[in-house]
Specification:
By secondary structure, the chain is an alpha/beta fold. The protein is built from 6 helices and 7 strands, in the order ααβαβαβαβαβββ. Strands 3-2-1-4-5-7-6 form a 7-stranded mixed sheet. A hairpin with a 2-residue loop joins β6 and β7.
């Protein structure tokens, strides 16, 4: 009886694996970490419908990467490079190997996200897209280095559940919100500095 349950569970798990939706790896399935709740394919497809024109030749940072579904989707669609940040990178690295990703187009950082973001900022990395699906609310101490990691015109996309309030991200301006079932994406860009008022005689 236990074997039958185990086999059924295994088949269900394999059938529910996320797949790459477009590009060179279209249709390839991905392994996910144990107890992970990956973004639905519908939501991921909608996300890339918004981002599609900016993906080719872009540099992508995938925080809390898990299986790497978002960063791998970006590579499949023509991103030049993706940096994945994930402390438990076993599923991610199996996916990279199975897909045959080239060593020069990805980097796996096996550190806490806050430490990794700070290290990337210090070495001068800049990204056109930074994506985060955090298991908890983002904190100001984490956001500061992320804001500095955005290239000119870059976007920071945060995924939350539908009932979550908008993230408060100093230094970043909310561009738009998109909801797809339980998945909500918040799109941010670097805040524009307000111009100083013109000087007056005697000031």
């Amino acid at each position: 009886m236990k074997r039958e349950v185990s086999a059924t569970s295994s088949r269900r798990s394999a059938g529910s694996r996320p797949r790459i939706l477009a590009g060179r790896w279209k249709g390839r399935s991905l392994q996910v970490p144990r107890d992970a709740r990956p973004t639905s394919g519908r939501a991921r497809e909608a996300l890339f419908d918004v981002l599609q024109d900016s993906i080719p030749e872009s540099r992508v940072l995938d925080l809390f990467a898990g299986s790497g579904a978002v960063g791998l989707e970006a590579l499949s669609r023509g991103a030049s490079a993706t940096v994945f940040v994930e402390k438990d990178s076993r599923a991610l690295e199996r996916n990279l190997a199975t897909l045959g990703a080239h060593r020069g187009e990805f980097e796996v950082v096996r550190e806490d996200v806050r430490a990794a973001a700070g290290a990337l900022a210090r070495r001068g990395d800049r990204f056109d897209l930074v994506f985060a699906d955090p298991p908890y609310a983002l904190k100001t101490a984490l956001v500061r280095p992320i804001a500095s990691l955005l290239a000119p015109g870059g976007r920071f996309v945060v995924q939350t559940d539908s009932e979550a309030a908008p993230p408060e991200l100093p230094g970043l301006a909310l561009e738009k919100r998109r909801a797809y079932g339980r998945n909500v994406f918040w799109f941010f860009e670097r805040a524009r500095l307000e111009p100083l008022p013109p000087s007056r005689p005697g000031w």
